[in-house]
C-alpha cells in the first residue's frame, strides 16, 4: 500500500487516469471483465469471460459508478482482509479469542500474504486462503456441534472455492 503513496505523482504508473495493475494475471482477468462489460468476446481468444473474478468486477461496475480500472486495482485490498473472519471463527470454536485476534491480525499483515494481495495484484490469491480456512472452520463446527444444519455448508464452500479457483482441487483434497 505504501508504494501507492510513493508513486501517486508519477505518470508512469497510470493508465487511463488510474493506477496500472501489477501482475500478468491481473491483466488476464481484466480482459474478461472488459469483454463482459462490452457484452461479447472473440471466439477462441482465451478471454476469461464469465470467470468469477471477472464476473465480480463486471457486476460491481454495472451496479456502482466506479471505473473498471479502479475496481480491479482496489479489489484485493477490500477482499484480502476477509481472511481474518474464518481465523476468528476457528479460534472461537476452541475458546481462544485472544489467540484468534492475534492470529487474525498476523494473517492479514504477514509479508507473503500482503505481497500477494496488495493493491493492483488482482488475482485469485485475494480469497484462496480465505476459502480454505472457511472450509476448515465449517468442518470443525460440524464436528463440534453435530448439528444437521451445518452438514451442507462445507460442501457449499468447497464448491465456491472450486468455482473461484479451479486449481484448488489439490488443496481441497489435503483438507
Automatic annotation (TrEMBL):
Record keywords: Glycosyltransferase, Magnesium, Manganese, Membrane, Metal-binding, Transferase, Transmembrane, Transmembrane helix
Keyword Oxidoreductase among UniProt keywords: no
Domain Oligosaccharyl transferase STT3 N-terminal residue range list: 3-166
InterPro entries reported for this sequence: Oligo_trans_STT3, STT3_N
Pfam families, alphabetized: STT3
Location of the protein in the cell: Endomembrane system
Pathway annotation: Protein modification; protein glycosylation
Top-level taxon of origin: Bacteria
MF (Gene Ontology): metal ion binding; oligosaccharyl transferase activity
Residue spans crossing the bilayer: 71-90, 96-115, 127-144, 150-172
Entry cofactors: Mn(2+); Mg(2+)
Membrane topology of the entry: Multi-pass membrane protein
Primary location recorded for the protein, binned into one broad class: membrane
PANTHER family: DOLICHYL-DIPHOSPHOOLIGOSACCHARIDE--PROTEIN GLYCOSYLTRANSFERASE SUBUNIT (PTHR13872), DOLICHYL-DIPHOSPHOOLIGOSACCHARIDE--PROTEIN GLYCOSYLTRANSFERASE SUBUNIT STT3B (PTHR13872:SF1)
Family per record: Belongs to the STT3 family.
This protein's name: Acetyltransferase
